Amino acid sequence: MTPRDVVFPAGRQALYEKNRYSPAIRSNGFLFVSGQVGSRPDGSPEPDLEAQVRLAFQNLDAILSAAGCTFDDVIDATVFIVDPESKFETIWKVVSEHWGGPPHPTLTGIGVTWLYGFQLEIKVIAKLPEGRAGA
C-alpha cells in the first residue's frame, strides 16, 4: 500500500490528529479534501450562521493553499446543510462570496439532521496544479 500523501494546513494538525482524520490527501493529480466546517481553532462551532459559513471557507481555503491550490481548482463540491429550507438563502449568500465566477464546480447539496453542532459542511475535490500531482 502506498502511504497517503496528507496535506495539513498550518496550525490545525493537532485538531485533525485528535479527531483521527486527514484534512486532505493528494492522489493521482487530485486533492481530496475532508468536509470542512466553521470551526474555531479549538474545534468548537462558530455560533453565528454567516460567520460559521465564512469560517468553513477559510478553513477550506487554508487546506487548498497548503496543497498549492485555490477554489478555482475545485472541480466537485458536496455541501451538507442542517435544515436547508430555513438556512439555504443565508448560507448561499455567503457561499457566493467564495465560489468565484463560472464555470462553477459540480455541486451536490444534501440536507442533513445533524453535523456535530455545525450548520454547514463542505467537502471538495480539486485538480492539483502540474508538478503537485501526489502519489
From TrEMBL:
Entry's Gene Ontology cellular component terms: cytosol
Protein name per UniProt: RidA family protein
Pfam family, one: Ribonuc_L-PSP
Highest taxon of source: Bacteria
GO molecular function annotation: deaminase activity
Organism field: Variovorax gossypii
Taxon lineage: Bacteria, Pseudomonadati, Pseudomonadota, Betaproteobacteria, Burkholderiales
Database matches in PANTHER family: 2-IMINOBUTANOATE/2-IMINOPROPANOATE DEAMINASE RIDA, RUTC FAMILY PROTEIN YJGH
